[in-house]
Amino acid sequence: MPITVRRRRWRTLSERPKALVVGGGLAGLTAAHFLEKAGADVEVFEAGDSVGGRVGTVQVEGGFIDVGAQFIHSNYDVVLSLISELGLEGNLAPLTSPITTIQRGHRYRMAFDSWNVPYLSVKERLRFNLQLGRLLLPRLRMRPHAEWPRSLDLDDAELGHYLRPRVGEDTFEYLIRPLMLSYAMAEPEGVSVAYFARSMAMYLSTKTFALRSGIAALTDALAQGKKVHLGAQVVRLLPDGPRRVVGIEVARGDRREEVRADAVVMAVPSPALAPLYDGWSDVERRFLDTFAYSPFPIATLRLRSPVDDPSYAVLPDRADGYRLSFLTLPQNKLPHCSPPAYLQCYILGPLGAGIIDEDDDTITGRVAQDLERIFPRVSRDVDWVRVDRYRHGFPHFAPGAYGRALQFRESVRSIQGLAVAGDFIEGGLLEGAALSGKRAAKAVSADLGLRR
Ligand SMILES: Cc1cc2nc3c(=O)[nH]c(=O)nc-3n(C[C@H](O)[C@H](O)[C@H](O)COP(=O)(O)OP(=O)(O)OC[C@H]3O[C@@H](n4cnc5c(N)ncnc54)[C@H](O)[C@@H]3O)c2cc1C
Fold this sequence. Notes:
The chain is α/β, with parallel strands linked by helices.
């Protein structure tokens, strides 16, 4: 059998293959990190005025507050290895504060194991665990992130339709919903059972951590020393023939310029990606036309005096008329880092999507009544408000979306010179974003003959 000896060709700096990464969120920065390590000459183009995307930390008097992603889970393999490589390991702080759910006027600590749920009857707990077993046993030891396609057989069923009759209304409302809000930032209706199974695999096998330095320390550290162009909106991928990309067109203010390269990694949410290229195949177009992100605002309020509650999060009872999905007390996530007297209000689902374009006062006004019910008189104590609007908040894995995302992921591989990253092609969340960036870098490195 002939043996092939591969010779490593040493390149000078100017000879290094050039890769452009579009999007300075975690997916793009992870791709840039691994491409640079493999020996590429990398430039990152970010439309916003800072890196991080949906990872953001704001400085406030007396500390900081994370306004986008909050938690890293113990099964985030890629994120945790980046954290250790970047020397941030010492900043990981476990979440120890409870999560409170409100059910018919009573407050309970949320269950973090599937049996110990005091507010459900023994029969309800049995039914829930039976269903959980049915869903998860075939996926025993599934790595929830890297192996999410193993849930594809559950992709066509809608969660409410599938689970409500099987577990009962109370379990759905007071256990499934809080779990979906906590682990997937999604109201449970309209998502696929596959997404639920992934979230539950995570819930049963994970510990939760925040970063004591603020979560943006991760994306800031990744961006450190890289060529990052801020305020650089990519408006078009440059084609050369039907399925080949040779660069990008960038708009900076009124100026437009074309930048050519050996490879382009697109790491932007799918709705931002769709209009940039005319050469999508039917499968790719079908995915891009149907896949959506849920938009929502988050209002961060500063109070004149802190509320006295040990919870990190409070999940109110929508059956009792609450409109707020949940609120959080950042100081109970990271005591001594986030100052007391702040509250963050998450308005998800149709209400969040409906009011995202309203002004700050209107958005906070919509949940003031709920706040009063949770912490009486608190809304009179608010002296500062900040609203963050996430137009591409969370990828929405509706029934069928996992399958279409996977087809898209496979299909775009046949476009020469292009790789796609982003949380939407790896099942969502920080780990999905980082994993997608790492995989995109690996594919590009292979194409360009770089070390991997
Ligand atoms: C409020 C909130 C809380 C969250 N909490 C958690 C959590 O606790 N744990 C967890 O694991 N995940 C959480 N997430 C999800 C997590 O933040 C995302 O999955 C992840 O950050 C997505 O990274 P990304 O790089 O794929 O996308 P993004 O972060 O959206 O990055 C995409 C970047 O591309 C840029 N861009 C877009 N279009 C263009 C263009 N044409 N040209 C140039 N640049 C462009 C954008 O400005 C953006 O910076 C949360 C998300 C939100 C919104």
